[in-house]
Amino acid sequence: MGKRLFDIAASALGLVLLAPLLLLAAVWVRLDSPGPVLFRQTRIGRHGVPFTIHKFRTMRVAPGAALTVGADPRITRSGQVLRQTKLDELPQLWDVLRGAMSLVGPRPELPCYVELYPDDLKREVLAVRPGITDPASLAFSHEAELLAAAADPEREYREIILPAKLRLSADYAARATLATDLQLIGRTLLRVLHR
């Protein structure tokens, strides 16, 4: 209950304080390339319930792979900056406010990748709300570069990166407290500022 109250208060405050930045980012995305301002995608949330995640659109509207590998040519000029600074994630504050996500929790995956979760880890990871940040996000902040260096990015993600992220997410879910969440939020903000 304390975690949810913290999420509501922090996400509402964030949306209010960051409103000018959100507006500027939205205008830039809209002017930079044709298409919607927001990118919407179905992800798997708490207890395996699908939900729609929101981000600022950072790619041209075109068919392509689910994974973003290295300097993906679909990424727009505004998208490069938004991705590097993680500002593309800010619309997820709305997802936190409406209860689909938490500020801290395992990153929500696409249904096709959740199907690969071993049953024991699936129960643990999906027992909590997915989050904007978590230990796996910090450990794999350079994921696009790792995939770019792989001979088969999809296989690298499925067989190497996803299992490692799952173990970190399950460990977080088993030990999460408000204190650990605050620590992870602090580490995330420092990482963003360092970028």
Concise account of the structure shown:
Helices cover 55% and strands 10% of the residues. A hairpin with a 5-residue loop joins strand 1 and strand 2.
Walkthrough of the structure:
Helix 2 (19-32) runs antiparallel to helix 3 and helix 6 packs across helix 9 (153-175). Strands 1-2 form a two-stranded antiparallel sheet. Strands 3-4 form a two-stranded parallel ribbon. It is built from ten helices and four strands. The chain has one domain (2-194). Strand 1 (38-44) and strand 2 form a beta hairpin. The protein is 55% helix and 10% strand. The chain is mainly alpha-helical and 195 residues long. The protein is globular and about 45 Å long.
Helical residue percent band = 40-55%
Count of alpha/pi helices = 10
Structural class: mainly alpha
Instruction: List the strand order in the largest sheet.
Output: 1-2
Tell me the number of structural domains: 1
